[in-house]
């Protein structure tokens, strides 16, 4: 276990740093933790489309030019000294890479002006472009507010749609039922407390105005905490991996179910859910927990819709850390070390030979589901595949699950380990399109008006065309 802890913590505790010696001086600013441990500072503005625009405060931050560099030809970027300097820095830091790409001259000139390659003869056999090596999570951005002496973790400036629909009203890929607001929406560093602690310590070293008594706002999980208290809090992932200390997590459910849970505890498979993300033979043995309060609110809203009740978030002390197993949401793709020649059951019950492994990756959820429903023969290589797959799920995936802030508990959790944390009333989501838009009634009225105007315009064109024909004039004039 110690090697596992060491490898996880080494990755999570990468030293944070900035691109330059820049230190923020604004009373209100945003700080983003990028991949590789770099921090950028921003002021928030408004775009021409009415959305949010993050303007870099650091004049030497190479990210201020990333959009002008990404997916552009190297020859094109090199013509601008400022862009070239930013590109070189981003490549050096591992945020961009240069990729060889064969393209025809006509394809190039259809996208870019001729100052890139003026003539066909100027186009090299292999052109080169700047491409991104990965994406930063804008959710790892917090707001430093010296006017209110607070660190705000509310990330709703991202303009995500913080809503949930009734899972029982799903038809194909669409939902036909009502949508309800997820109480806290989106929060920064959700499920990544260790990253948040590291970020706070770094900001305190960069901005001496941030003191331990600054309040943490925007996340219900830390509603009573200060910066000083949070940075000293024992690490959740470390606690879970080492077994040292009390591990507290959250569980989202409905008020209707809380009445039963309060008396009988949390029982795996007790809800008889039919959610599409559950896996036969796995999910019904687990109780699902999360480090993220907002993630719990999300699932609570979903369950409240299903039960026609209020959303409830529970605080759960994990009774036995050794019973933690991976949440199937982190299963992803799997590349077995060898090929397994198995038999799968077809539509009409026939057994067909099939190969898992080799060059192609497989979705672990799909294989698990087939085993759970009896769709894979449990003999020969099928038996070995199941054994090796379960060993991978048990040994490799729990740390990945914990790092993503979600985990499953294999077994029953008694009532004494559970307490009520928050209750939320159901709040209808007024627009089916985007946050802040018109409600359903207004949207439908606008839509009807537009359709009527379009219909009247079409009818006017037809009348004019008929009148022209009857007058003997050329209708194309």
3D architecture notes:
The protein has 477 residues and is α+β, with helices and mostly antiparallel strands. The chain has 3 domains: 31-132, no CATH class; 141-327 and 404-424, ADP-ribosylation fold, CATH 3.20.170.30; 330-400, no CATH class. Helices cover 32% and strands 21% of the residues. It has 14 helices and 22 strands. The strands form 8 sheets. The protein has a 6-stranded mixed β-sheet, with no helix packed on it. The chain has a 3-stranded antiparallel β-sheet with strand order 13-15-22. A 3-stranded antiparallel β-sheet has the order 14-21-16. The longest helix is centred in the last third of the chain and has 32 residues, at 440-471. It is globular, with a radius of gyration of 28 Å. The model is unreliable at 1-13 and 432-437 (pLDDT under 50).
């Amino acid at each position: 276990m110690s090697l596992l802890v060491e490898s996880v913590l080494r990755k999570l505790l990468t030293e944070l740093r900035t691109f330059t010696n820049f230190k923020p001086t604004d009373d209100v600013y945003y700080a983003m933790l990028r991949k590789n441990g770099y921090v950028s500072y921003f002021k928030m503005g408004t775009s021409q489309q009415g959305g949010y625009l993050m303007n870099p405060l650091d004049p030497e931050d190479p990210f201020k030019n990333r959009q002008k560099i990404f997916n552009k030809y190297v020859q094109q970027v090199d013509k601008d000294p400022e862009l070239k300097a930013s590109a070189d820095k981003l490549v050096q830091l591992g945020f961009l890479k240069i990729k060889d790409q064969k393209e025809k001259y006509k394809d190039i000139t259809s996208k870019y002006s001729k100052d890139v390659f003026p003539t066909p003869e100027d186009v090299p056999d292999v052109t080169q472009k700047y491409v991104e090596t990965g994406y930063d999570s804008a959710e790892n951005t917090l707001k430093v507010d010296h006017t209110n002496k607070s660190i705000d973790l509310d990330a709703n400036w991202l303009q995500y749609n913080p809503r949930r629909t009734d899972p029982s009203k799903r038809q194909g890929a669409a939902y036909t039922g009502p949508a309800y607001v997820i109480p806290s929406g989106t929060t920064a560093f959700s499920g990544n407390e260790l990253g948040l602690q590291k970020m706070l310590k770094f900001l305190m070293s960069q901005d001496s105005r941030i003191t331990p008594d600054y309040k943490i706002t925007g996340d219900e999980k830390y509603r009573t905490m200060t910066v000083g208290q949070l940075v000293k809090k024992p690490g959740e992932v470390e606690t879970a991996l080492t077994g040292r200390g009390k591990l507290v997590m959250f569980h989202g459910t409905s008020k209707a179910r809380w009445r039963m849970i309060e008396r009988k505890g949390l029982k795996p498979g007790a809800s008889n859910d039919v959610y599409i993300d559950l896996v036969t033979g796995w999910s019904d043995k687990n109780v699902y927990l999360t480090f993220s309060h907002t993630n719990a609110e999300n699932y609570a809203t979903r369950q409240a819709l299903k039960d026609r009740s209020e959303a409830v978030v529970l605080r759960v002390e994990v009774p036995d850390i050794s019973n933690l197993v991976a949440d199937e949401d982190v299963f992803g793709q799997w590349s077995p070390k060898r090929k397994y020649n198995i038999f799968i059951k077809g539509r009409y019950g026939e057994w067909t030979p099939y190969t898992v492994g080799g060059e192609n990756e497989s979705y672990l959820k799909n294989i698990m589901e087939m085993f759970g429903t009896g769709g894979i023969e449990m003999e020969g290589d099928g038996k070995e595949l199941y054994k090796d797959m379960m060993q991978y799920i048990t040994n490799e995936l729990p740390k990945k699950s914990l790092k993503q802030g979600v985990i499953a508990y294999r077994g029953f959790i008694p009532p004494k380990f559970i307490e009520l944390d928050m209750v939320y009333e159901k709040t209808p989501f007024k627009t089916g399109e985007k946050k802040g838009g018109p409600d359903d009634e207004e949207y439908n009225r606008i839509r009807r008006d537009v359709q009527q105007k379009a219909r009247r315009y079409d009818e006017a064109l037809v009348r004019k065309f008929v009148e022209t024909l009857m007058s003997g004039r050329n209708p194309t004039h």
